[in-house]
Amino acid sequence: MEQYIQQIKSKAGFIIDMDGVIYHGNKLLPGVTDFVNWLEVTGKKYLFLTNSPERTPKELQEKLKRLGINVGEEHFYTSALATANFLASQTPDGSAYIIGDAGLIYAMYSVGYTVNNVNPDYVVVGDPRSYSFEKIELAVNLVLKGAKLIGTNSDISGPVENGIVPSTKALVAPIEIATGRKAYFVGKPNPLMMRSALKRLGVENKEAIVIGDRMDTDVISGVESEIDTLLVLSGITAMEDLIKFPYIPKYILSGVIDLVE
User: Fold this and answer.
1) What are the tens digits of pLDDT across the range 204-258?
2) How many other CB atoms are there within 10 angstroms of residue 241's CB atom?
3) Which is deepest, 124, 130, 147, 203, by most CB within 10 Å?
4) Is 91-185 a CATH 3.60.10.10 domain?
5) Is 19 a catalytic residue?
6) 241 classed as catalytic
7) Active site residue: 19, 101, 127, 258, which one?
8) 17, 101, 155, 213: which is the annotated catalytic residue?
């Protein structure tokens, strides 16, 4: 086990999922404070990566600060930012009709995109809290007129304090069905997001490790990007779930606490 942990700790770059790895809702998970301190003290490069597009890096930074972790906002990367960067590379200075919250709108503005409800290049959907028939109707007609349909992430649902809420893939589905057009999803498990993270960290894939709690997003995107993966059992996945998947993580620990105890 000691050798196993030393192999993980020898990595230069850490790509770390947030919910289920760093916190559950508003509760910090055991060992996280010591783990982040270790990243800082040893000079490791690290990025908190989340498929959730609704918060800006500043809002994520403030959330961690409330939980007692103080790091710069440059350490946060979301599916909204990945989506904005992808669209900027495809169609520089384009426009989009956006169904999403502050994090997505901020990301799109940050790459020089404008909001366009008439003839946009893209219709972009990302976990909106304000979702209505009127917005779906407009999105459908814009896609039929030629706008390309983009989803920030392919999550079907997500946990909240009082149960489960539909996520981006479920909310895009009515637009796909009504138009007959398929959306392109940028966030995990799309390896595009991992490659963007590697560029931000400035490390090669062999020097990095992905730490996550989900086999269907974190681990598979690491595997497909040829980055070593560490599955932590502090979130959504249990050991008995591994048999359901045709691929495996390189490392498995109960949580990040195992790296610092």
Assistant:
1) 999 999 999 999 999 999 999 999 999 999 988 999 999 999 999 999 999 999 9
2) 14
3) 124
4) no
5) yes
6) no
7) 19
8) 17
